[in-house]
Amino acid sequence: MGQRSKRAMPGEADYVVVGAGSAGCVLAARLAGSGARVVLIEAGGSDRTTLVRKPGLIAAVHSVPQLKARLDWGYYSVPQSDALERKIPQTRGKVLGGSGSVNGMLFVRGNAANYDSWAAEGCDGWSYADVLPSFKKLESWEEGETEFRGGAGPIKVRRQTDVTTATLGFMEAFADTAGVKVLDDYNGESQEGIAIVQQSAHDGLRYSSSVGYLDDHGMAQLDVVTGVTVARVVLEKGRAVGVEVVGEDGVRQVVRATREVVLCAGVFGSAQLLQLSGIGPAEHLRSVGVEVVQDLPVGDNLHDHLFVPMCFLMPEARNKGTAPYFARGFVKEMTRGGTWVGRTVFESVGFVRSPNAGSVPDLQIHVLPWSYPGPNQDAPIRHKADPRRTLTVMPTLIYPHSRGTLRLASADPLAAPLIDPAYLREPADTQLLLDGMEMVREAMAHRSLSGRVQGESSPGTAYANRAALAAELPNRATTVYHPVGTCRMGVDERAVVDPALRVRGVEGLRVADASIMPSIVGGNTNAAALMIGEHAAGLILG
């Protein structure tokens, strides 16, 4: 393939793809594989670093501000009025592979009903039956190809191994109290139940879209350029003809696209770029001095998953959140491999129905055998975790009712956007999380765990009932880093792109990333973002 380091920017290509994240790497590779000339532009740097490539080191990246600053945009939400005015971190990868290079690597497609609901709203070609071939094309499942799984794709997907007895015990207890099965494959025929987690990692290597689609693929027609910020889409007579870029030296130039420009800059980046280019809410654009080209609801429909970490002291959880323990694990991994450093830190995931759920699970459960800092990690400091062996269980809101916005702070392309996810704005979101917390407590009190759980360290006995939890929840609920929806796909006035991902009213311009989701999927969003890259390639190439 083309160089994966800083180099002279090509002046022209058939396709210009903005953002080398989860969808962008997939789309650029597929377009180049068709014989087209492609330029893939990434503001971040190379992902060829142990911090990114070693799966378990994500814990260090997220907990040490100096490390995080190397790979993250450093965004925060605006003060959240329904969450004690907290400014909540909005981690986004600023590196090849995008957020897929800094995530927990949980591989979750979501529920089949999610995609059928998109199709039912008019997004033809996006039902589960339509997107399943794209999901299968991207993955290499450890058991090979089946009716539901792909066996020869670029992204290796494997179950977590060496699972602690603490997690296994919780899984059995939760299955009993929640009335669900212990599943073999939640990405298969049915999602409902609890299971060993699946990860986009294998043999101690993170399988981001950069690793899977860009590494060792000899495509001379693909140029990958890093360290360059796109300032705007260049429009001529209602058509996107290229992008204006700003190098680290401040020099601006235009890269022209003879066919199309495709924005894959993520839920924040793609919406910000459209607005900087004059495509967005007219009144807002005028307020920041941007000339209006197309009045569209860009930046609306922002929504995100929330979870609440609950920590239980369990000696069987094995891992200790201390620097010496972490250092020993790193040395063992680098010398002989096979340790927790070479895998995701999560061990189990569940999908269950709350008492008021409809036909699909509305709660996700994340389980990891590590202590989680509390009550939140908002401050940009190194937070201290409980050094005792702890099982953390996170009841997760996967279908939020609350909707927020993304807006420009100014017309400066280097200024961070104003991110308002409107967390907990709708009371139903709070009630769902409280239901989840009560379900977790019920499982931890199961007879099979008697004597194995030594207490709840967070939130703890000070919040023993639902009323106390409700009062404390705004201080503890936090993002799972799954924002979506700011460039909504659809066929009505709420849509930014049509079902072919074309920006309404603008020729030669598409968006292909998690921002196009009309509604969020029921599970971690990275697999869906990869699918969107694959599906977009099929749409563009026919």
Automatic annotation (TrEMBL):
Superkingdom, according to UniProt?
Answer: Bacteria
GO MF terms, alphabetically ordered = flavin adenine dinucleotide binding; oxidoreductase activity, acting on CH-OH group of donors
Cofactor(s) annotated in UniProt: FAD
The UniProt entry, under PROSITE patterns, shows:
GMC_OXRED_1, PROKAR_LIPOPROTEIN
Q: Where is the Glucose-methanol-choline oxidoreductase N-terminal domain?
A: 93-116
Tell me which residues bind FAD.
V95, V230
Which UniProt keyword terms apply here? Answer: FAD, Flavoprotein
Keyword Nucleotide-binding annotated: no
The keyword tRNA processing appears for this protein: no
Q: Where are the membrane-spanning stretches?
A: none
Show the Pfam families listed in the entry. Answer: GMC_oxred_C, GMC_oxred_N
Q: Which family does it belong to?
A: Belongs to the GMC oxidoreductase family.
The name on file for this protein is Glucose-methanol-choline oxidoreductase
What organism does the UniProt record list as the source?
Catenulispora acidiphila (strain DSM 44928 / JCM 14897 / NBRC 102108 / NRRL B-24433 / ID139908)
